[in-house]
Amino acid sequence: MRDDFDLVVSGALVVGEHDIEVADVGVTGERIAALAAPGTLRGTRIVEASPGAVLVPGGIDTHTHIAWPIAEGVRSLDDFASATRAAAVSGTTTVIDFVPASGGSLLAAARERMAEAAPSVIDYTFHPVIARITPDRLREIPALVDEGLASFKIYTTYDDRLDDGEIRAVMTTVAEVGGLAGFHAENHAILEHARSAVLSGSAAAIDRFPRSRPGSAESAAIGLVTHFARELGAPVYVYHVSGGEALAAIEAAGESGVLVQAETCTHYLVLDDSVYRRPDGWKYVITPPVRDAAAQDRLWDALRAGVLGSVASDHCAYGLEHKLPGAADFTVLPPGAPGLDARIPLLWDHAVTRGRLGLRGFVEVSATGPARTFGMYPRKGVIRVGADADLVLWNPGREWTWPAFEAGWGSDYEPYEGMTGAGLPELTISRGRVVARDGRFTGAKGAGRFVPQRIDVRQWPGRQAARGAGRHPSA
Hints:
single chain
């Protein structure tokens, strides 16, 4: 066995692609070069894992809004350097952000967005947002896919929504060139009716917000886009699934043969709709809304069953300046919340520490599933020889009260403030470089790279594999 590895992580419980066992992981350059029995590898730098430490692939956040245009001339409070620093400290090594909708060339906007992301400290890629249809826009889609921007976002509500015919046309073009159409799926007409009904009987108080966006709006929109997917033989992705009605539509589509992948988000898994009755309920005006506790249970069931393939943050670093002016009126509150740094620690605690998912299930929904869905596997999302050395060493027993890391990277409020749990990263490694240690960033601005997507539905996460519920550490 060679003894000249650049970095060796020794003696951790390694959640590898096929096995979970105590092992050494050797890194040469940016890639994993060896997996071997504990204590057998030597190298320039050796990290001895503490007792009970677990080594997992770096997390992939499938849904972030970094440096996001909130209104004309107004952006969120982070940038790509600060946001990806927070991601690295908390165990995420790749983010998938968005190319904002453009009135001009979407290809030009994508190149501008990639330039804006150059200061990132971890790797990144993008979903371009398609908000209007013209012949020029449709002609740009193949070029975007060729450049590795192969997953798209389409709205079925808001001012940027497409109508049914436009959705079908975009899905056709995207599928023809090997891309993936994804949807913010809420039926606009249902939302308009529900909102009018709520406002006709009362003021727009925060506790009434969930009734203005019922789950039926999600299921109706999912039914439409999966109908087109079935007709066209096209794959489809659904962003931020919030509960049971949306899940039922996804399950029905999958059972009928539709190639559908979907994500849920941290807030739907760890919060319920009682947050809207709190004095700070404005923090949770997110679309779709946080649902009730029964919906939360259904989401965990869907993660275990493989119906949902990933857990995202849907992060946007709003500040008090953006939110407080509408704190008593949900109709003027910009929807969304920060959470990029909270995603992995909260997921670990609620999934692994509390026994809802085993280690294999945690890795599947935080890293491997996203990598497979978005065409980055096997370069990302797994611990195997030849993969990028994106690794996170966890201390499962380290207790925390949120916020668990230093502040000052972006938003000036915390949706998860005061929550408690166990499990934090001791070390985050991005392509072979240690970028965070014990809650402190140690990497370099601009070290992140663009990761091209090559969608391959043959690699998509399987529905049949359960996510390994239970407390046993090797589950």
